[in-house]
Amino acid sequence: MRHSFVVVAFALVHGAAAQQIQDVWQTTWDRSSLIASMPPASAIAFGTPGAAAAADIQVDDTQVYQTIQGFGATLTDSSAKLLDGLKTDNSDEYWKLMDYMFSSEISLLAAQAISPPMVPIPNAALSYVRVPLGASDFSASVSTIQPATQACRINFTIDAAPAYLFSTLTDIMSVNSAVRFHLVPWSLLAWMKTPANADGGSLMRMSTITHSSLLMHVDALTGFQGKNITVFAVGIQNEPENSDTTYPSTSMPVATEAAVGEALRPLMNSAGFTENRSIQI
Ligand SMILES: *[C@@H]1O[C@H](CO)[C@@H](O)[C@H](O)[C@H]1NC(C)=O
Ligand SMILES: *[C@@H]1O[C@H](CO)[C@@H](O)[C@H](O)[C@H]1NC(C)=O
Ligand SMILES: *[C@@H]1O[C@H](CO)[C@@H](O)[C@H](O)[C@H]1NC(C)=O
């Protein structure tokens, strides 16, 4: 039998001895079961482990590692376009889907589709959404954040992004006000890169170009703020080891990315974004 991926939910309030598994959700490799509820007949109590086998996963809930900011996915332009199309065609289904994906409330509507029907299931409650800054490999067309002026301080505007991206983000905030958005470019502007192409290439090291790429990140924060979209973090570069000449991407060695990150922080601070994170991926 192939392995299935089983997610268990349990209370983290008490010590291990008091913990019990109340819910089991199963997704199988062949998609015959997708996040299916498989409640145990009675709560499963944690016990003293037996001898470790090859595939044992040992959880030590007394050991704390890094803080998790949320769980989620990237909302590409094409995802926003699909959602926006659904909103136009069938607004009720759109809002049900938005609730199902992003709301942290228990959804009785969703429960009706699941067997047994009387068990209300929580929504997916995606709480962290990465948003491509400019086009990604899932965009209907290649748009970038645009230079708005060509003075000594080049200003950038996010308005070339499709309008349905902003309305979808606003709708997500309306169903989950705690959602965290993380902006991150797939491609820098072509002229910041060598070779100068939106698809592939790497950031030029000329300081004025690098500085422009920093201003681009800061202006993106300002742009989203102007649209009342709260942005938790801005990332330097998506998949920095992946320069692909067939779609928007940029390669950025670790040292460059670290230097950009270090230079970005004071610029973000002086523009008033002291609480917004800069993230090196
Ligand atoms: C460019 O951006 C800077 C910083 O936000 C601002 O002070 C300046 O007024 C902007 N210039 C134009 C022409 O919009
Ligand atoms: C942002 O919110 C402010 C205050 O509520 C409001 O005046 C403004 O019109 C909003 N802007 C947009 C683009 O929604
Ligand atoms: C930056 O963080 C602050 C505090 O969380 C938030 O109010 C603001 O909206 C964020 N900036 C943007 C551009 O969303």
Automatic annotation (TrEMBL):
Keywords: Glycosidase, Hydrolase, Signal
Translocase found in the keyword field: no
Molecular-function GO terms, alphabetical: glucosylceramidase activity
Domain of life: Eukaryota
Gene3D superfamilies: Glycosidases (3.20.20.80)
UniProt record, GO biological process: glucosylceramide catabolic process
Signal sequence extent: 1-18
GO cellular component, one term: membrane
Alphabetical list of InterPro entries matching this protein: GH, Glyco_hydro_30, Glyco_hydro_30_TIM-barrel
UniProt domain Glycosyl hydrolase family 30 TIM-barrel: residue ranges: 68-256
A Pfam family: Glyco_hydro_30
Recorded family membership: Belongs to the glycosyl hydrolase 30 family.
Name by which UniProt lists this protein: Glycoside hydrolase family 30 protein
